Amino acid sequence: MSVDDGAVFDSGGLDQLIGVLRSAGYRTIGPIVSDGAIVYGTVTGVNDLPVGWRDHQEPGRYRLEQVSDAHLFDWAVGPSTWKSEFFTAEETVWQASIADGQVTFSEPDDDTGPVAVIGARPCELSALAALDRVLQGGAHPDDRYAVRRSGTFVVAVECGAPAGTCFCSSMGTGPAARAGFDLALTELFDGGHRFQVQVGSAAGAGVLAQVPHRSAGDGDRVARQETLARAEARMGRRLDTDDLPDLLARNLDHPRWEEVAERCLSCGNCTLVCPTCFCSDVKDATDLAGTVERQRRWASCFDVEHSLLHGGPVRPTTASRYRQWLTHKLSTWWDQFGESGCVGCGRCITWCPVGIDLTEEAAAIRTSAGALGSVGSVGRRTS
Amino acid sequence: MTEAMHGILSSHRFLSGLPEGTVELLAGCGHLETFEAGSLLLSEGSVADTLHLVHRGRVAIEVRGPGRDRHIVDTVGPGQVVGLSWVSPPFRWHFDARALGPVATVAIDSTCMRTRLDENPTVALALLERLASVLLGRLQATRVRLLDLYGHDRDH
Amino acid sequence: MTETTEPTGRPPPRRGALVPEPYRVVGRQVEVADVVTLALEPHRGQLPAFAPGQFNMLTAFGVGEVAISISSAPGGAGAVEHSIRDVGAVTHALCEARIGSVVGVRGPFGTHWGIGGIGEDTDVVVVAGGIGLAPLRGTVRDLVARRRDGGGRVYVLVGMRSPDQILFAADLEDWRRRGADVAVTVDVGAQGWQGPVGVVTSLLLDAPFEPARSVALACGPEIMMRFTTRALVDRGIDPRRIQVSLERNMQCGIGLCGHCQLGPLLVCRDGPVVSYGGVADQLLMERNR
């Protein structure tokens, strides 16, 4: 779908857009302020959005500040991810009742209808695309995810306010939205608070047609470019991705893994806030009536039991688990899915209780790569 | 008889690649022996004075114990050797070696062999290296078996 | 699922790959003290096509699910066999399953042994340790049933714990009768055992296969496979002509749950059977991966 940058509306237009989507039957989920953070929840109109809120993020630190203006998207990303809308943190995969040697299965009907995502950042569009590839792009798709994901309407908002932990420009996922949206907005201030709107799909065009708007002028286009350029310049972190997958694969015995393990608490916060982490555990349970249920919940590779084999963990040390997590994101995800597993959102840096910064860890390995031999390391498959 | 023994030694895996003259040296101290199934090649506690190069049949290295007449700890087949305790004091066999079926060996007298090796350091060194590699292989194999891999293995 | 508020077409719900099919236990064979082979037949429809080396996810209802290799060859009488070692709650429940009871099955999943294109004169060297013989059993059955006029032979080299733990003894005898070169060694000998005592790699010394025209298939505990693959290479087999079956924690079997990661591989999706040369050779050497 070609992207044109033709429309402009103000926050009243955004309010109407949300209304149009709601009357079309979508559950409209977007950013709201709750418990001192910007998280995702039901939004019924512009007033539910984080009006006038700004975030401050550094390794291990997140703080919200209310500033007196009408900005709606003057923040980066919070601890919520869109993942949890489609791949829920806990769910029942199936139920079965067994009687007279016959098993009757039922899959719980907990599909709550199609979602309209309001205010997804470009990095999050990439994260959703990565999750789609993992959970529904292979030979055996996760049908529950596929059902929830189908018919999703995506209103993206390009990033004008990256955080101190953001590095989407290094990962090529932002601050501009390139794909994976129905409508993409850019919040503009110079010359009046307004949104420039790009259309990314026929569905997007159809919805935009129901919202009053005007055509974008050269001034709007220039303002958008300036906003994106400013965002690019304000990016708090960067990651050198040149040869990174192979570099990490060659440095599995690097002493840095042991060093970071001295700080890492193995708490799994990074996996919890990561928009692409997809690991899950299953557990079977039986109730008194004889109904059997299989439950699935998010899992973390920082959990020592994650790699259990014959009663013992394959990755018993924090160093081996941190290495697994980081190399999966930045190296072996390429082998497995042909792209990066990291989109540069910076959540793992912000929400790490001890402020471990994966861009710093990768850079440290690059700086002293090859100081040790790479005995036992594996090269990436080339086919 | 000597020709037959020469032929067996020349093609024996234990001696392959050893310096020229090794076969002749050993042949000069050896003789062919055959064992019926169940008979002992070596007996625990007696004087260790023979190196057997097995060329037919399988030999069990075993130990007697109460309540069970024998525990087999290893088996040795054609191309391998039985009897290494003559290498160092106290020159006594540590285990029994029993023929599991009809067994044929070239039995080398260790006293004779020592004397001849004293005169031929090249062969002596090569032979000791070969013995060391046999011992190393058996040590590694024993360590692997100590892991009891199949006792705690995969749940396929 | 509601019908009225759907702005775009949504796919109808269907039984997904995460939901087991009910199978009936139609055969149960105690192989050795802690290993049971179950023959399973689907309640409905045809047995899905499978190839030896692949695995199924078996559910003991109310207890849990576990990945178990298929231990039969395709073309059986509509049932698929799994040889299960009793090592935990789920495998225990499966081992206890009686004829007529219901077991959940998802699969077959994963890669299979690659012997489809082997030549008429290719020697196939199968090295198995313990229950690792189970995933190889179907392939050996297939191999010994094939007529290959070029002189290619089948070598089955098996290491087991002790004589009373020798799995598939009847199969081993049958394969021998059908011309395979079968050797079994045990870690611990016993009264009446006339065969070799020692590690499985010792059998490689005597097996007269021709390394230059051999392929090798190995399955067993990871440590055993490390030593075995090295010994196969020492014997002159090209590492790219050696296949091994890897193992990691599997919970979904279909590449969704992330548990079975092994470096670049999702073992359930890219394995369990992989080439030794270029893939497993390095992975088997890595620590804590």
What does this structure look like?
The complex is a heterotrimer of chains A (383), B (156) and C (289). In chain A, a hairpin with a 4-residue loop joins strand 13 (280-286) and strand 14 (291-298). Chain A has helices spanning 11-23, 83-86, 122-136, 143-149, 168-171, 202-208, 218-234, 244-249, 256-263, 269-273, 318-337, 347-350, 358-367, and strands at residues 4-9, 27-34, 37-42, 53-58, 61-66, 90-99, 102-106, 115-120, 153-157, 183-188, 194-199, 214-215, 280-286, 291-298, 308-309, 312-313. In chain A, helix 9 crosses helix 11. Chain A folds into two domains: 4-234, no CATH class; 244-367, no CATH class. Chain A has 13 helices and 16 strands. Chain B has 156 residues and is an alpha+beta fold. Chain B has helices spanning 2-10, 22-27, 110-119, 121-146, and strands spanning 30-35, 40-42, 50-56, 59-65, 68-76, 81-82, 96-99, 103-109. In chain B, a hairpin with a 2-residue loop joins strand 4 and strand 5 (68-76). The mean pLDDT of chain B is 92. Chain C is an alpha/beta fold. Chain C folds into two domains: 21-109, Translation factors (Elongation Factor Tu (Ef-tu), domain 3), CATH 2.40.30; 123-283, 3-Layer(aba) Sandwich (Rossmann fold), CATH 3.40.50. In chain C, a hairpin with a 3-residue loop joins strand 3 and strand 4. The chains are: A alpha+beta (383), B alpha+beta (156), C alpha/beta (289). Chains in contact: A-C, B-C. At the A-C interface, strand 6, strand 7, helix 4, strand 13 and strand 15 of A face strand 6, strand 13 and helix 7 of C.
Strand and helix map with partners:
The complex is a heterotrimer of chains A (383), B (156) and C (289).
Chain A: E1 4-9, H1 11-23, E2 27-34, E3 37-42, E4 53-58, E5 61-66, H2 83-86, E6 90-99, E7 102-106, E8 115-120, H3 122-136, H4 143-149, E9 153-157, H5 168-171, E10 183-188, E11 194-199, H6 202-208, E12 214-215, H7 218-234, H8 244-249, H9 256-263, H10 269-273, E13 280-286, E14 291-298, E15 308-309, E16 312-313, H11 318-337, H12 347-350, H13 358-367
Helix pairs in contact in A: 9-11
Chain B: H1 2-10, H2 22-27, E1 30-35, E2 40-42, E3 50-56, E4 59-65, E5 68-76, E6 81-82, E7 96-99, E8 103-109, H3 110-119, H4 121-146
Antiparallel strand pairs in B: 1-8, 2-7, 3-6, 3-8, 4-5, 4-7
Chain C: E1 21-32, E2 35-42, E3 55-60, E4 64-69, E5 80-85, H1 89-95, E6 102-109, E7 123-129, H2 134-145, E8 154-160, H3 169-177, E9 181-186, H4 202-206, E10 214-219, H5 222-234, E11 242-245, E12 261-262, E13 265-266, H6 267-270, E14 273-275, H7 276-283
